[in-house]
Amino acid sequence: MKKAALMALLLGLLADQAFAVYVILLHNGDRLVAREKYQVKGPNVIFVDKIGTLKSIPLAQIDVQATEKINTLGLGDAQSLDWVDREQVKPTPTPTPSVTGLGRVRAGVVKVNPDSVRPTPTPGIMYRDKEYPDRQVTAAFASGFEAYHIYLYRMGLGTQPTYLFIEVQVNGQAETLKALQAVTTTYYLLFQKAPTRAPERVEIQMLNESGREAGLFRISAEETADLATGKITAENYFVQHVIF
User: Fold this and answer.
1) Which of 54, 81, 142, 215 has its CA 20 to 30 A from that of 197?
2) For the chain, which domains are there?
3) Backbone angles phi, psi at 149, to 5 degrees
4) What are phi and psi of 59, to 5 degrees?
5) Is the model more confident about 198 or about 99?
6) Model-level pTM greater than 0.90?
7) Kind plus residue range of the DSSP H or E element containing 46
């Protein structure tokens, strides 16, 4: 009954895909984001950036091999995880808003109700205001969210020391599915490139605009593969893994 009800609720909705972009990696470590692959014009290349500006840079500045590799992953402009092999690089995590400030982050978002109005999740999955110890891991998930244009989230330590907790505010079912796609895709890539540093589990709490729970998940890296590689839809993944 539960699965049938959830499937009916989600029927007809398609999971949104990441905004089509082409990431250009430079030899100095910088990254540029274009709307599509650059064109070679003599010693230079030209491309249109995300805001529509035509730009040109020397071809010699581009790490062509790394650029081609990252764009075959199909992750939009999510950060690559090359930091796994370059421990000397300091993490630069993207700041995430607190729940009390979510209404100020995006115009028109209803302020989140106090914690007292939220249902208590049975498995104890909730925000604990404790930082997850690996900031580069949280930075990777932050970049993954932003590649899917999900901006209202916060992260912390989960119910176990090796669990990452993610809280996401979503506006409707389509955004719920998009956020789920962002988490699983990032988690899958992280596990492929750095299995020893990937969280043992990722716990996800989806909240709607009024602060009420819209979906609760506790997933392992192995459970991300089907959705991250497109073998199943986000709707089916939701039904299979949601906890209520």
Assistant:
1) 215
2) 18-77 (2.30.30.100), 89-244 (no CATH)
3) 60, 40
4) -60, -35
5) 198
6) no
7) strand 44-48
